[in-house]
Structure formats: structure tokens, C-alpha cells
Amino acid sequence: MDNILDNFSRDANIWKLEPQLLAVKEFANLYDQDKSKDKTRSSKIMWGLVFLIHPDSVFRDLDERDREELVAKDYIGDKSFDFNTVKEESVKLRELMLTRAKRSLDAWETKLRERDKFIENTPYNIETADHLDKILKNTADLWKQYKSIREDVLKEGSMTIDKGSKTPSLSDDGRI
Fold first, then answer.
1. Could you give phi then psi for residue 162, rounded to 5 degrees?
2. If you ran DSSP here, which 8-state letter would residue 36 be given?
3. What pLDDT, on a 0 to 100 scale, did the predictor assign at position 2?
4. pTM
């Protein structure tokens, strides 16, 4: 599923491109409940989830809420669409699409964004100065930990099995 975005086009039906998704109960339920022609509504919702979750999505660096609003309005075509209504599908897709290391990295990125927003929204004054100084002092350690997890994810990516179930050579991987 790493390359699912390679198959995307605006009119692509995810159920036709990735029919194995229907083997998963949560996705099959979404599909079965869809009364639109050719299941286009649920396909757009699933693509929307891919855009929100996949590490190679162009929307990845946006804040979660901004990502959701943009995808709901501009792709799904329903600015009031609430991704909380497909929370089970989102959790399952995250499990299937991301390795454990990538999920850990994703959690770190989310918390670092929250932390940045907290720092940005906290005024620096006599009441908050000590607290903010402590937070800022810990920044280097947090980034070290994040970079360590990121390195694990990158190593994991270089150890993947390519088509034909063989381990890529060093030259295939670009390491020599």
C-alpha cells in the first residue's frame, strides 16, 4: 500500500484500484452503506483518508484540522464533512498503511506541532516566562529523539523487499 498515491487520479475509484481493501470490515461497511452510483462517495472518503494519513501526501505538512478542511471542501466536495464519522476507518487505514515506526514518527510529528502551537499561542510575560523557558530548553532533546525515530523509519524503508520478494542490492537502493 506504500504506492497507493501513485494510482490516484481525480476520477479514480479506490475500490476498483485497491479491491483488497474490501476484505477489511471497516472499509466494507463504508462501501456497503454507500448508495451513490459506483460507490463514488465512499471512494472519495477513502481517498480523503489516504490524503490525511499517507506520509507522501502533499497535504502532510498542514495542521490536521487544516488538512481535513481542505480535503473535505476541495476533494470530497462537502465542506461540512466530518472525518470523525469515519474514525474507525481512519484508525484501520493508519494501521495498514504505516509501519509501527512510521506510526510512532507520526505521533511525534503531531505532538511537536501541538507543542509549537502552544508555544506560539502563549504570550511571553512575567507569569509565563519561567514555564516557556523550561519548555524551550527541552526542545533540543525532543528533536534528538524525533530524529532518532525518523532515522529508524528511513532505515526501515531501505530494508524493504522489492517486487519479486528479493532484497534490493546496495546499488538498487542507491547506497553505492
1. -90, 180
2. S
3. 56
4. 0.76
